[in-house]
From TrEMBL:
Belongs to the eIF-2B alpha/beta/delta subunits family. Signal peptide: none annotated. NCBIfam families: eIF-2B_rel, PRK05720.1, salvage_mtnA. This is Initiation factor 2B subunit alpha. InterPro entries: IF-2B-related, IF-M1Pi, IF_2B-like_C, Initiation_fac_2B_a/b/d, M1Pi_N, NagB/RpiA_transferase-like. SUPFAM superfamilies: NagB/RpiA/CoA transferase-like. It comes from Actinoplanes awajinensis subsp. mycoplanecinus. Gene3D superfamilies: translation initiation factor eif-2b, domain 1, Translation initiation factor eif-2b, domain 2.
Length: 320
């Protein structure tokens, strides 16, 4: 099943706000509906956002094809619907480059982006599984954070794709899914995907991760990214940095699995990235709150970055 696709003139997505209770498909016919879906996290995860951005421009081209100002405005709104994952603006811009060739050319480019993400997931799964086994030996116990499965891409996913591949090889001893406060992408979505794949797992509260690592219950941390900067800094779901510190302290690998479409060498360091603030309401109803949705993991805590084309051994001085 594809998390996002173009079907009969509209964008179809699995509504991730309804999971794990309901498996519901939403059909999005307008740019406004698509932007609302992105902002509510009905569609989410860096690779899926790249595809959503491109399909959004395809929708805009159909509706505003003869009105350049409206079209420009729609593309701008899509690109900036969420600020942190580089894939969103990148996907929208790639599709927008075809606007002068007409709506069908824009849609074709969006479909190419979708297909590239499908291929990238497959490449990362096998390359990442090889690296995990090389670094950890047979039957590792892994901890993952947020959701990096097919729901966050189009199919398969990034870090969770590696987990699935290790399971298929009979080479996985256990998975801990960090719950991922406040929207519970780990407890709701990763757990749902692992259950559907028949992979035994346990959910842990976010703050338990470093302690479980210190107690020797985790052999490697494996997770995704929303943006990887030129110096190797990794932007990912809030809580990632804590897991990286825990892994460093425990002396276990900290592995980032992300497609090349998430590598942003135009951004020098994590300090240059806008971290989305999602407001207080998601955290608490009775006091003010600070709610950064992502954090920056400094490159010196990263062992390796696995993409669909290469393994970057950050610990050995390699950089994106
Ligand atoms: O706010 P979200 O759910 O879109 O955040 C997603 C993440 O942080 C993922 O880890 C990242 O996009 C990688 S998805 C393969």
């Amino acid at each position: 099943m594809r998390t996002i696709d173009w079907v009969d003139g509209a964008v179809e997505i699995i509504d991730q706000t309804a999971l794990p209770g309901d498996l519901r498909v939403l059909r999005l016919h307008t740019v406004g509906e698509l932007i609302a879906a992105i902002q509510s996290l009905a569609v989410r995860g860096a690779p899926a956002l790249g595809v959503a951005g491109a399909f959004g421009v395809a929708l805009a081209a159909r509706v505003h094809g003869d009105d350049p100002a409206a079209l420009h405005n729609a593309v701008r709104k899509i690109e900036t619907a969420r600020p942190t994952a580089v894939n969103l603006a990148r996907g929208a811009q790639r599709a927008a480059h075809l606007l002068s060739s007409g709506p069908e050319a824009v849609l074709a480019e969006a479909c190419v982006i979708r297909d590239e993400e499908i291929a990238a997931s497959a490449a990362m799964a096998s390359r990442g599984a090889d690296l995990v086994l090389q670094l950890c030996g047979e039957r590792p116990r892994l901890l993952t954070h947020c959701n990096t499965g097919g729901l966050a891409a189009v199919t398969v996913g990034t870090a969770l794709g590696v987990v699935g591949e290790l399971h298929r090889r009979g080479a996985l001893a256990g998975v801990i899914a960090s719950e991922t406060r406040p929207l519970l992408q780990g407890a709701r979505l990763t757990s749902w995907e692992l259950t559907r794949a028949g992979i035994e797992h346990r959910v842990a509260v976010d703050s338990a991760g470093p302690f479980l690592m210190a107690r020797g219950e985790v052999d490697a941390v494996i997770l995704g990214a929303d943006r990887i900067c030129a110096n190797g800094d990794v932007i990912n779901k809030i809580g990632t940095f804590s897991h990286a510190l825990g892994a460093h302290r425990a002396g276990i690998p900290f592995l980032v699995v992300a497609p090349e479409s998430t590598v942003d060498t135009a951004t020098p360091t994590g300090g240059h990235v806008e971290i989305e603030d999602r407001g207080a309401a998601e955290v608490t109803a009775w006091s003010d709150a600070v709610n950064p949705a992502f954090d920056v993991t400094p490159y010196d805590l990263v062992t390796a970055i696995v993409t669909d084309r290469r393994v970057i051994r950050v610990d050995r001085g390699e950089r994106p």
